């Protein structure tokens, strides 16, 4: 099926926006039945307001643990609880010890 760009009006702010042929193809591929009713700016604002943005989503903030690097002695934070007797490295020392 061939698509052509459509001019739509945002129901939120009243601004005109283009529903491009490639966006229409994407919507069809995903099985979406309705055209977008909000402009990209209002969609982004709505996602951010509802907490549904991709960068924060439903992921919780990771707990970090303070420790000292076993190699260089610098204070650092790691995303796991350090185990006694096992070395813990800062970012730089970890990269130096990393095996590929």
Automatic annotation (TrEMBL):
It comes from the Bacteria. Residues 62-98 form the CxxC-x17-CxxC domain. Residues 4-50 form the Probable zinc-binding domain. Pfam families: zf_Tbcl, zf_Tbcl_2. This is CxxC-x17-CxxC domain-containing protein.
